[in-house]
Amino acid sequence: MDGIGKADIHIHTYYSGYSNLGLLKFPESVTTPEKQVDCARKHGMDVICITDHNAVRGGFAAQRYAKRFDDIEVVVGDEIMTADGELI
């Protein structure tokens, strides 16, 4: 199957901030954008989409970092809260 690659279209970095579960507050991710790119490359990903919560800074940082490699592309996205739930 030529032309079919591997992608992950929903990845967070530490730029996603915190979420609440009852009284508990926890980070969505503690991983740097660079580490997400390295991990994706290690697992053979061709494309990743950084979709931090209400932020694009992590996506752009990952995109800049990934430019040094020729085997992965980073798409910058955003996950926002709407009246109907989260939307990427």
Uncertain segments are none
Q: Can you give the helix content as a percent range?
A: 10-25%
Tell me the β content.
Answer: 25-35%
Order of helices and strands: EEEHEHEEE
Helix count, DSSP H or I runs of 4 or more residues: 2
* Span between termini: 29 Å
Largest sheet: 3 strands, parallel
Question: Based on CA inertia axes, which overall geometry fits?
Answer: globular
Number of strands: 7
Oligomer: single chain
Write up what this structure looks like.
The protein is of the alpha/beta class and 88 residues long. The protein has two helices and seven strands. The strands form three sheets. The protein has a three-stranded parallel sheet, with helices on one face. It has a two-stranded antiparallel ribbon with strand order 2-3. Strands 6-7 form a two-stranded antiparallel sheet. Helix 1 packs across helix 2.
SSE order and pairing:
Layout: E1 7-11, E2 18-21, E3 24-27, H1 33-42, E4 47-50, H2 57-66, E5 73-76, E6 80-82, E7 85-87
Parallel strand pairs: 1-4, 4-5
Antiparallel strand pairs: 2-3, 6-7
What's the gist of this structure?
This protein is an alpha/beta fold and 88 residues long. The chain is built from two helices and seven strands; from the N terminus they run βββαβαβββ.
